[in-house]
Specification:
By secondary structure, the chain is α+β, with helices and mostly antiparallel strands. The chain is built from 11 helices and 9 strands. It folds into 3 domains: 15-146, Sandwich (Jelly Rolls), CATH 2.60.120; 158-204; 209-263, Homeodomain-like (Arc Repressor Mutant, subunit A, Orthogonal Bundle), CATH 1.10.10. The protein has helices at 27-30, 100-107, 123-128, 135-146, 158-173, 181-187, 192-203, 207-225, 230-239, 243-254, 258-263, and strands at 15-25, 32-37, 40-47, 50-55, 62-66, 70-74, 78-83, 88-97, 113-116.
Length: 266
């Protein structure tokens, strides 16, 4: 594994990995259109091929052919489209960053960025295990990849990101709780309307939609792990009082029901 450059040190909370695994992706499971993905991703195909597009507001999809031999950085905060015509095997992880310089480098990516996997021996295992025991190795890989990106131009919303950072961090660690915009706004001394405006500007979506995305990511992790019924997953992800709403949201965002998603192999 390539070393992290000396000028890029990482405090423990700068990078959070939400989920990751090696997955056998089926045609039925992979072909979908996700309105908004809050996290960035690392993809490395172990076999097969696929297509992936990021879509920024008002623009056409920017497609990338995914093939073995490359690590793909997928920028978050936008609509994303998946497509394939046959099954394939994928090492993947989802992550978010709090460090301003890291966020700026990712935000400057207008499409998927490919890196030679040969430069990072063992990257597939690191990516698949980043959300578990391999978190530190995952952090090192993210930093090593981002260090290869050019210095981004000035972030027009850097001041807004700094202002919201405590509230966003709180949201990302307490997303299973019944949070309110007013409560988050108080954490950073803003009115609810101003907080919502700045959040949309910096994250491309509403606070509610962002929280839903985080909850559904946790739901997918639990469904993949097994041992829980759909009703139990709903309860653990903040929908104990309304499992029907959980199923509706999951189906809207993923294109299939929780039961079908798990049956297809997650």
């Amino acid at each position: 594994m390539a070393r992290t450059p000396a000028h890029l040190s990482f405090p423990p909370m700068d990078i959070r990995f939400w989920s990751g695994a090696r997955t056998h992706c089926t045609v039925a499971r992979w072909n979908n259109d996700v309105p908004h993905e809050p996290w960035s991703k690392l993809y490395l195909l172990a076999s097969g091929r696929a297509r992936y597009a990021v879509v920024w507001p008002g623009e056409a999809p920017r497609w990338t052919e995914l093939r073995p031999g490359s690590i793909y950085l997928v920028p978050g905060g936008c609509r994303q489209i998946n497509a394939c015509d046959r099954d394939f095997v994928l090492d993947w992880c989802h992550f978010t960053v709090q460090d301003e310089s890291l966020a700026a480098r990712i935000a400057a990516c207008e499409r998927l960025i490919a890196f030679p996997a040969a430069d990072f021996p063992g990257a597939g295992e690191v990516i698949a295990q980043a959300s578990g025991a391999g978190r530190l190795r995952g952090c090192a890989l993210v930093y090593a990849l981002l260090a290869r990106l050019p210095e981004p131009v000035a972030d027009l919303y850097a001041a807004d990101r700094r202002r919201l950072a405590p509230a966003v961090g709180y949201l990302e660690y307490h997303f299973l709780k019944p949070l309110t915009v007013a409560g988050l706004a108080r954490l950073v001394g803003l009115s609810p309307s101003r907080f919502q405006t700045l959040f949309r500007r910096t994250h491309g979506t509403s606070v509610k939609a962002y929280q839903i995305s985080l909850r559904l990511a946790e739901a997918k992790r639990l469904l993949r792990a097994g041992g829980y019924s759909v009703a139990e997953v709903a309860a653990r992800c903040g929908y104990a009082d309304n499992p029907f709403n959980f199923t509706r949201l999951f189906t809207q965002r993923s294109g299939v029901s929780p039961t079908a998603w798990r049956a297809a192999g997650g």
